[in-house]
Amino acid sequence: MSSEIHKSRRRVLLGLGAIAVAGGAWWLRRSERSVAKAPAAIPATGATPTTNAVAEHFPTPLRVPGTDGLLADLPLTGPWELRATVAEFPIFAGRPTALWHYAGSHDGRAVVNPLLRLRQGQSFDLTLKNELAEDTTAHWHGLAVDEANDGSGLHPIAPGAQRRYHFTVTDRAGLYWYHAHPHGTTGKQIQRGLASLLLVEDEEELRLRTRLGLDWGTRDLPLLLADKQVDANNAIVYKDGADDWIGNRVLVNWTPEPHHDAVPGIYRLRLLNGCNARLWRLGFLHRGTQLPFLLIGTDGGLLEKPWRIDDLFLGPAQRIDLIVDFSAVPVGERVLLTSLDYVAMENEDDAGPLQRHLMADHPGAVPMGAAQDIMEFRIVPDRSTRRAFGIAAVPQRLCALPELQTDGLPTRRFRLALDAEGRWLINQWNMHLNGHEAMFRVRRGAREIWEIHNALASMPHPLHVHGFQFRVLSRSISPPDIRARAVTATGLSPHDLGMLDTVLIWPGETVRIVLDFSQPFRGTQRYMLHCHNLEHEDMGMMVTFAVDDDAPLLRES
């Protein structure tokens, strides 16, 4: 998409604000929880999609983290090195695919984009060498670290250079991730492969694992979901300056069209939306009917209690921890992990001739909001002698989160909007226009409420805060399908009730979060606040903020 088409599209969005109000009835009709499935994406080879049995739709066994290769499971215990580099791997049938990736070796075995496994309280010591022809970084997404170790674009690693990341892991147990974060090219580098998982464990987490009887790597599985735009030669393609990059192939743990053999019983699945821009409405289907599951955790670890739900929205960079029960599914049958139909709220359906341009860069891709199957669980007999417990073993109280004390806290207000030139803004600020200097400063140790409003003529924005986790206080002016998921008087869904580092904000919606800026790091520490739609981020929807001891206390914005 050229820059002129890009700007024209954004001007159309500005004009659609009034249309969106009149379209409320249309939204209500579309927001029913449909389980209808859209056709699968056209294979990159251009072949006609198969119409045979379901078993052929997901022919590839799911890659599970092992001892080497892609997504190797790597418990880190001491200093280690990774290289940001490029090499070819057999991802799809046919030609190998060039991946930008993090490469290393462990006990004599080559590891590629390894899943890093850490314990709370341990020292993390990793040196990243840049073998690419452009700047890169490694951002430790969700972890509480100082500026020097955050891996943002404020501290790029030049080609041929290296950087040591050294800090203590203080965060709660949970699924985090690490990925490239150079200013202006994050979308390209993640799309081409520079991203993987990071698991933090603590005593509370290990006790739950023992209680459930679910062994890590067998019935406790990480699932890295990502879509890639793949051409006929199996190359991952990306267009600089394009908007909302979505792919025509879905990968789970770098596996296309995967299936996984599962025995009757419960499974714990930890999912990351590692897409550049695609928003999922995730659910499980058995014989076309939704199979409920338990949500037990979010970005920053366990919820206080499990929540039984049918589906949920998962924006780019967000993670969930869930329990799904296959006990009632007969052996020989299948369960689909799918993204159900939803209204994308990108205000593009009335764009008329512009619609051709919106998908021109994404041939074969399922449009945003359309239903899309992701992977298949095939139920097989349980021949293990290892005892695993049933759904009744999931405790009704999982953990204790800090009390929400908000009385007397000041409010800092943000507005997400679009300007007349088609630029995404945070409080009228765009990094390409305003630079990298801090837009605001926060007193170290202060606590603040941030009120974030998304303009109606907009898109859903997954807003990410570096360096600090937060709690969601309220949602208001939410779309009907979001209000329908509320379980609190303040409009929160179960997904809003944990510790988060990324929050999804829908067009027209106002979300309030509370942050605690206590940290042990001295001096001025700069962090990023940005949309994790990576194309929005690269186009400047990002600001820097600073935390220091001399910042004036916020009274009110």
Uncertain ranges:
1-5, 14-55, 348-356
Q: Percent helix among the residues? A: 10-25%
Strand fraction band? 35-45%
Structural class: mainly beta
Largest sheet: 7 strands, mixed
How many domains? 3
CATH class of the largest domain: Mainly Beta
Mean pLDDT: 89
* CATH level 3 topology of the largest domain: Immunoglobulin-like
Identify the CATH homologous superfamily of the largest domain: Cupredoxins -  blue copper proteins
Keywords, please?
557 residues, mainly beta, Immunoglobulin-like, 3 domains, 7-stranded mixed sheet, 9 helices, 35 strands, 12% helix, globular
What would your notes on this structure say?
- The protein has 557 residues and is mainly β.
- The longest helix is centred in the first third of the chain and has 20 residues, at 3-22.
- A hairpin with a 7-residue loop joins strand 4 and strand 5 (97-106).
- The two termini are 38 Å apart.
- The protein is built from nine helices and 35 strands.
